[in-house]
Amino acid sequence: MNDEADLSAEQPGARPPSRLPLAHGDAGRPQRDPRPPRARSQEAVGVSAHALARLTRRADYLLVNGGRRAAMPGFVLLARPRGDDDATVRIGIIVSKKVSNRAVVRNRMKRRFRELARAVLPEHARAGTDYVLIGRGGTAEPDWQALQTDLVKALAKVRR
């Protein structure tokens, strides 16, 4: 039994493709906001005194290890001037398994250190210097304000 013999090969009349919008546009939502744009401030956003970069090579970490150090309750700060003409401040973060065997805890500590560096280093760091933050294990997570004040103290200590 062949059912195809009963079907017509003739196509129905011409229709516009169903996926294209109609000629008058989409009536479901307005094409643009009729209000004029708001006035915005012209101040620079996200621009800091010193550009921050990351330490990526092991050799850079080893060079910083030979510099000055300041131990604080939540971390140890290492600092070493590079001696080149580049004013970029570079930061490296180390949180070993000695702090915690749980990766979640170590990653949280690294995220907090990255944010701490973004908040404090542009104002207090010396240009052309490499810094390394080494996390220390503690009984409880220090609060944010204590971490900030400790980092400012450590920066002053390694600057002397």
Provide a descriptive summary of the structure in words:
This protein is 29% helix and 17% strand. The protein starts with 51 loop residues before the first strand and ends with a helix. The protein has a five-stranded mixed sheet with strand order 1-4-5-3-2, sandwiched between helices. Helix 2 (103-124) packs across helix 3 (144-159). It has helices spanning 58-65, 103-124, 144-159; strands spanning 52-54, 68-71, 75-81, 89-94, 129-135. With 160 residues, it is an alpha/beta fold. It has a domain at 52-159: Ribosomal Protein S5, domain 2. It has three helices and five strands, in the order βαβββαβα. The relative contact order is 0.18. Its EC number is 3.1.26.5. It catalyses: Endonucleolytic cleavage of RNA, removing 5'-extranucleotides from tRNA precursor. It comes from Sphingomonas guangdongensis. Keywords: Endonuclease, Hydrolase, Nuclease, RNA-binding, tRNA processing. One of its GO terms (cellular component) is ribonuclease P complex.
Low-confidence stretches: none
* Rg for CA atoms: 30 Å
At CATH level 2, the architecture of the domain at 52-159 is 2-Layer Sandwich
Q: Tell me what portion of residues adopts beta-strand conformation.
A: 15-25%
Q: Tell me about the biggest sheet?
A: 5 strands, mixed
What does the average pLDDT come to?
83
Q: Any idea what the shape is?
A: elongated
Question: How much helicity do the residues have?
Answer: 25-40%
Order of helices and strands: EHEEEHEH
**Helix count from the secondary structure assignment:** 3
CATH class of the domain at 52-159: Alpha Beta
* C-alpha end-to-end distance: 97 Å
Number of strands: 5
Which structural class do you get from the secondary structure elements? alpha/beta
* CATH topology name of the domain at 52-159: Ribosomal Protein S5, domain 2
Strand order of the largest sheet: 1-4-5-3-2
